[in-house]
Recover the amino acids of this structure.
């Protein structure tokens, strides 16, 4: 008598999200273009952290909401959750975008430590972290523009 085992098969569900402009497959022209794409995140009623995956020539593949809600601390996030879609889609580059619920966009010490951690892990995976962008109510902060990561692709 044959014995059967049930294994879990992974299935990926794509969900289209409507955004203003023609962004799919477009070249990211630096942090300003990413802020333009996600400008509505500043109006969110809760904290959100998203990951944008890009292929060669900095073309957008997709984005994923990696964390949402409450007062999550970036250092409480599992870094593997940031790289899930990047690995599935074989992304060459990664950008992290998060909002602050107050006027400030200045990074906290936890954001700096988080960015350092993600940078190190991304190198091991062969995925370059291009930027970590914090969008506040009035302004944004770009780790790349501040010289804490490699320069923006457009500069």
């Amino acid at each position: 008598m044959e014995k059967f085992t049930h294994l879990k098969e992974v299935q990926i569900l794509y969900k289209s999200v409507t955004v203003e402009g023609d962004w799919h497959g477009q070249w990211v022209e630096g942090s300003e273009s990413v802020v333009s794409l996600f400008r509505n995140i500043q109006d969110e009623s809760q904290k959100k952290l998203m990951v944008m995956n890009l292929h060669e020539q900095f073309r957008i593949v997709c984005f994923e909401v990696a964390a949402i809600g409450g007062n999550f601390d970036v250092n409480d996030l599992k870094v593997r959750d940031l790289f899930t879609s990047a690995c599935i889609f074989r992304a060459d580059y990664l950008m992290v975008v998060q909002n602050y619920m107050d006027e400030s966009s200045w990074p906290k010490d936890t954001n700096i430590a988080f960015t350092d951690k993600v940078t190190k892990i991304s190198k091991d995976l062969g995925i370059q972290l291009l930027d970590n962008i914090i969008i506040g109510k009035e302004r944004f902060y770009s780790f790349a523009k501040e010289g804490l990561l490699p320069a923006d692709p457009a500069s």
About this structure: The two ends are 66 Å apart (CA to CA). Helices lie at 31-37, 79-88, 109-125. The first helix runs from residue 31 to 37. The beta strands are 48-55, 59-68, 93-99, 128-135, 140-142.
